[in-house]
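Weekly modeling sync, notes
Attendees: S.R. (lead), two postdocs, one rotation student

Agenda item 3: backlog of single-chain predictions. S.R. asked that every request posted to the team notebook include the full sequence so nobody has to chase files. The rotation student volunteered to paste the first one in as an example of the format we agreed on. Action items at the bottom.

Example entry:
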Amino acid sequence: MKIIIEKDFEAMSETAKNILLGCMSQDKRINLSITAGNTPVGVYKSMIEIVKDSPNYTNVHYYNFDEIPVTDQAEGITITDLRKLYFTPANINEANIHPLTVENYAQQDRRLAMDGGLDAMLIGLGGDGHFCGNMPTTTSFENLTYKVKVSGEEPWFVPDMMEKGLEFVTMGPVSVMRVKHLILIVNGKKKAEMVKNVLQGPVTEEYPASVLQLHPNFTVILDEEAASKLDR
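Predicted structure, as returned to the notebook:
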């Protein structure tokens, strides 16, 4: 595990951008999985300026690692957010976007293997210790890509759109551990305690992201606030 501590959100985002672009610049097909949400906004803003309409990155193929379906909406929350944050403003070719859905999740691991595996994955950290859609109480460290049904009694935060009975899909710990380079970005003081738990505490399903300590090529990029409780 390599931990990089940057001064602030902007510096953290710049470092993550440079690592991703380094991977994307290789002279071969690159399979990349990236996160939605607020944490990577700065990363994508900088990447768009470089990637948009550039012939140098047509080799990059994108895969979402989880998905929450929405009734009467053609695509789920994750891919919709990724389109808004990055795919559309970067003018990514539709042929290079490979959505994970509740319909095709059972084929996800085989599909990735046939495509050469994921070269890199950019993920965030939930305040409850989850990563991707691997939530406390629903995650087994033995899971490949799997489906989770919301019971309505989860002890973890459930967004408003995730009504009781809704099913979402996510790449499980086994699937994520197969990624060649795993990159975790976290910012802000409110996640400092969880950063310490998952990076320096025991590996436990209570904090699913703690299993990432075992990944052979794991880069963690933090701002100073998120790193403030780590034992240096």
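Discussion: group reviewed the output briefly. Helices lie at 9-24, 41-51, 77-87, 108-114, 173-177, 192-200.
Action items: rotation student to repeat for the remaining queue; S.R. to check formatting next week.
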